[in-house]
Design a protein that fits this description.
mitochondrion; Rossmann fold; 38% helix; 7-stranded mixed sheet; alpha/beta; elongated; 31 helices; 8-stranded mixed sheet; thiamine pyrophosphate; Transketolase-like_Pyr-bd
């Protein structure tokens, strides 16, 4: 290596910016030249031999006192980037005293070795920062490698002989080395012996905490983490903090023990093996409250949920114990859900900070990670309504299992929402309960990445692995995680490496599949006893105090158990994850229409949204390309054609006191984004929250959210939700992935009874809507679309609304509505009856065709072509579910001698036929058939061949108007 390269490398090692290197080298050279020009005649200081100045620099790096004071000052100034002082050369002494006093005549090889050793030490420090977590003692059982690999990186000094990797030797261990600015292991010292450097690196990176952060591309963030963990003595706790930690562990463990004693044969999905999670969460909440957080929204899978409800959210214990009563009656409303899926909302005083804190734990189905985007959506909404744009008042905490965190794609989708402007919640703290096992699947068979948390690296989130049997290490990591989130507003992951004391549930026998692990688990001393013994040994608590703490909590549990016997009926309000005060008030006033104009679909939507904004109702529209609209019909965001990123949302500038309109293109995600919007809609009933699929077919990838949350959410958790799904739908020859929103799936999950003949009353429509699990509509007019959106907010309750929206009808000349159909006094039409020639002579009508959506326009056109406007009536079902029994009964009675036909453009095994057929037959008491007209059954939702599409369209239109088609057939 040349002298110049060595010199530059040394400067680089010393943390000097690239642009300063050449300037420093130049000034060192000039300093030597000026020394020559000051009158000395010694040949070794001639310009040709100025390399000795470099050697002085190397000597100074090793020991600043080894050079003359003037050179020491110069090198300090040069390192600090200060200007050259012209008076420095005058302070230099003559050569003889200089050599005699400081011994500068070093050989080039010696100087080269010095620089190489310094560079080696820097590389060593960096190796621990990058890879130290691979050898950290993370597994409480001591039998597994948290990173699934027992290999020890060759650049970590685990044995003396590994010093050779860096060209160092045992004799170098007591040498003192200058520390670079990229480490804080020295504390107030800027140099340490190699032996001490290695010791401190091992203490920081290779004990019970494993840090992954060096992939972060922000220097400030890396330095912040290094300072938090490398600085000597940072992880210290007062005796009071230790006693609080012990008390929290007591509550966590004794709660599980109590459930195990009282309900040994019940599934509880207990927290045994990771009891430290309770104090960990409370530490995060305490620290966050201290920094100003007022509302924490949490989501988690089932493991440990009851413990979190009891000891973090602080739900009444009798309400939890009541859930175990086998004679428990059904709730007032809905089918309910298992106790370890339910949620909770609670406002209380945080004892650590004496500040008010609101905690919400979201209900979650067995689809472990499905709740992630829902939590984020609700958090975003709460921040929005509080004006908390920086996330300083509202935050989210997500808990995960290790197998699900690595295996379920919604985790990745949720992470990718974390920094998008319309979706960010300004940082989430993720806590992974890392059992090191799935149900029965070994992690080596369950993931390809070293850690289950590796997905978080995609957004540069720091990952703090920690041994869950070291409570103090866990508390420190959680405290730092809370500070990180508050400081940088970025996600952070705490990986609690633990074990599962029992099987997947309490009825499961894990020894069948993990014998080695569970032999060790059966011998494992519980974390509470370990920590209590430690505190008793060092005098922090006495054995008597510890036993009294246990007895006190056991007594609390027993008293709550007694009270639960008197509480046979569960009050479901105790399990709601957020309140909706004042929902019974029906919103009044509608936008007054003053001009008699015609509107298309897009303008009707615009007017519906605008009417809400004027009334103070927030409107949020989200999905892929919704700002413009997939079919270029919306244009709610206008772009400056000359200035990049300069946009305008006109709807936000209509009235001075209007509500805000949020329209935002989402990431290319359905599962994650729909979950997010569902959560957003949960926060307030006084908002219209819409998610639009790019094509209706694409809701397939969000089916879990639809099945587990939207369809059944009210039945399971008594959670009303008014989210609107806009699903573009229509058979137009565009293939099976761009045609069908699969209406049959939504109808199949509708909860109305096809065989029950209802009792009709003046309130039939409202009572139907109140009792249904959701509403499915396929509007054929812009006015009806306008009204169904309006009805969504005007109702005194909330139901999910599924709208099969059009594609070709967006610009169809006949698909227009007059303002007269939208002014005050007009409403949503569940059924649009025939109003043409056939309606004026109903007894002469030979056929009534019932249909929904776009096919109506095909039928009207064909009827006119065949001149059958008197013989054939066409009636539209705008609301398919709940089924409009009352209005259709009137239509059926109006045409007593006509054939009844259901016509749809979808295939027979999809669409609406299987849903409407039994309901029509119920209305007529099975006395008249309802014939099917449409495409034949098919495996794919639609054809992608335009000609095939047109041929099949022609075929079923011919059948629909063949008035002899069903003669002689039986049903």
């Amino acid at each position: 290596m040349s002298r110049l390269k060595l010199f530059v490398a040394t400067l680089k090692w010393h943390g000097i910016k690239l642009l300063e290197k050449q300037d420093i080298a130049r000034r060192v050279f000039l300093h030597g030249q000026r020394y020559v020009s000051s009158g000395t005649s010694e040949p070794f200081l001639s310009a040709s031999n100025s390399n000795y100045v470099e050697e002085m620099y190397y000597a100074w790096l090793e020991n600043p006192k080894s050079v003359h004071k003037s050179w020491d000052v110069f090198f300090q100034n040069a390192n600090a980037g200060q200007a050259y002082d012209p008076h420095l050369p005058d302070q230099l002494e003559r050569k003889a005293s200089f050599l005699q006093s400081h011994g500068l005549a070093q050989t080039p090889g010696k100087a080269e070795k010095l620089v190489e050793d310094h560079l080696a030490v820097q590389s060593l420090i960096r190796a621990y920062q990058i890879r130290g977590h691979h050898v950290a003692q993370l597994d409480p059982l001591g039998i597994l490698d948290a990173d699934l690999d027992s290999f020890v990186p060759s650049d970590l000094i685990t044995t003396i002989d590994k010093l050779g990797f860096y060209g160092l030797h045992e004799s170098d261990l007591d040498k003192v080395f200058q520390l670079p600015t990229t480490t804080f292991i020295g504390g107030s010292e800027n140099s340490l012996s190699l032996r001490e450097i290695i010791k401190r690196l091992e203490n920081t990176y290779c004990q019970h905490i494993g840090l992954e952060f060096m992939f972060i591309n922000d220097v400030e963030q890396c330095q912040w983490i290094r300072q938090k963990f490398e600085t000597p003595g940072v992880m210290k706790f007062t005796n009071e903090e230790k006693r609080t930690l012990l008390a929290r562990l007591v509550r966590s463990m004794r709660f599980e023990d109590f459930l195990a004693r009282k309900w040994s044969s019940e599934k509880r999905f207990g927290l045994e093996g990771c009891e430290v999670m309770i104090p960990a969460l409370k530490t995060i909440i305490d620290k966050s409250s201290e920094m100003g957080i007022e509302y924490v929204i949490m989501g988690m899978p089932h493991r440990g949920r009851l413990n979190v409800l009891a000891n973090v959210i602080r739900k009444e214990l009798e309400q939890i114990f009541c859930q175990f009563d086998p004679k428990l009656e059904a709730a007032d409303e809905g089918s309910g859900d298992v106790k370890y899926h339910l949620g909770m909302y609670h406002e209380r005083i945080n004892r650590a900070t004496n500040k008010k804190i609101t905690l919400s734990l979201m209900a979650n189905p067995s689809h472990l990670e499905a709740v992630d985007p829902v939590v984020q959506g609700k958090t975003k909404a709460e921040q929005f309504y509080r004006g908390d744009t920086a996330g300083k008042k509202v935050m989210s905490i997500l808990l995960h299992g290790d197998a699900a965190f690595a295996g379920q794609g919604v985790v990745y989708e949720t992470f990718h929402l974390s920094d998008l402007p319309s979706y960010t919640t300004n940082g989430t703290i993720h806590v992974v309960v890392n059992n090191q096992i799935g149900f029965t699947t070994d992690p080596r068979m369950a993931r390809s990445s070293p850690y289950p948390t590796d997905v978080a690296r995609v957004v540069n989130a720091p990952i703090f692995h920690v041994n869950a049997d070291d409570p103090e290490a866990v508390m420190y990591v959680c405290s730092v995680a809370a500070e990180w989130r508050n400081t940088f507003n970025k996600d952070v992951v705490v990986d609690l490496v633990c074990y599962r004391r029992r099987g997947h549930n309490e009825m499961d026998e894990p020894m069948f599949t993990q014998p080695l692990m569970y032999k060790q688990i059966h011998k494992q001393v519980p974390v509470l006893k370990k920590y209590a013994d430690k505190l008793i040994a060092d005098g922090t608590v006495t054995l008597q105090e510890f036993e009294e703490e246990i007895a006190k909590y056991d007594r609390i549990c027993e008293e709550a158990y007694t009270r639960s016997k008197d509480n046979k009926i569960l009050h479901i309000k105790h399990w709601l994850d957020s309140p909706w005060p004042g929902l019974s008030r029906i919103l009044r006033a509608r936008l007054e229409m003053t001009k008699n104009r015609v509107v298309d679909w897009a303008l009707a939507e615009y007017m519906a949204f605008g009417s809400f904004l004027k009334e103070g109702i927030h409107v949020r529209l989200s999905g892929q390309d919704v700002e413009r609209g997939t079919f270029s019909h919306r244009h709610h965001v206008l772009h400056d054609q000359e200035v990049d990123k300069r946009t305008c949302v006109p709807m936000n500038h209509l009235w001075e006191q209007q509500a805000p309109y949020t329209v935002c293109n989402s990431s290319l995600s359905e599962y994650g984004v729909l979950g997010f919007e569902l959560g957003f809609a949960m926060a307030s009933p006084n908002a219209l929250v819409c998610w639009e699929a790019q094509f209706g077919d694409f809701h397939n990838t969000a089916q879990c959210i639809i099945d587990q949350f939207i369809s059944s959410g009210q039945a399971k958790w008594v959670r009303h939700n008014g989210i609107v799904l806009l699903l573009p739908h229509g058979m137009e020859g565009m293939g099976p992935e761009h045609s069908s929103a699969r209406p049959e799936r939504f109808l199949q999950m509708s909860n109305d009874d096809s065989d029950a003949y209802p009792e009709f009353s003046e309130q039939f429509e409202v009572s139907q809507l109140y009792e249904c699990n959701w509403i499915v509509v396929n509007c054929s007019t812009p006015a009806n679309y306008f009204h169904v959106l309006r009805r969504q907010i005007l109702l005194p309750f909330r139901k999910p609304l599924i709208i099969l929206t059009p594609k070709s009808l967006l610009r169809h000349p006949e698909a227009k509505s007059s303002f007269d159909e939208m002014v005050s006094g007009t409403t949503f039409q569940r059924v649009i009856p025939e109003n043409g020639l056939a309606a004026h002579a109903p007894h002469e009508v030979k056929r009534v065709i019932f249909c929904t959506g776009k096919v109506y326009y095909d039928l009207v056109k064909e009827r006119k072509n065949q001149d059958l406007e008197k013989q054939v009536a066409i009636t539209r079902l705008e609301q398919i579910s709940p089924f409009p029994f009352d209005l259709l009964k009137e239509e059926l009675e109006k045409y007593p001698g006509a054939d009844l036909v259901w016509c749809q453009e979808e295939h027979k095994n999809s669409g609406y036929y299987d849903y409407v057929k039994p309901r029509f037959r119920t209305i007529v008491n099975h006395t008249r058939p309802i014939w099917y007209v449409g495409r034949e059954p098919a495996a794919a939702a639609a054809t992608g061949n335009k000609n095939t599409h047109l041929v099949s369209l022609r075929r079923f239109l011919d059948t629909a108007f063949n008035l002899e088609a069903f003669e002689g057939k039986t049903f």
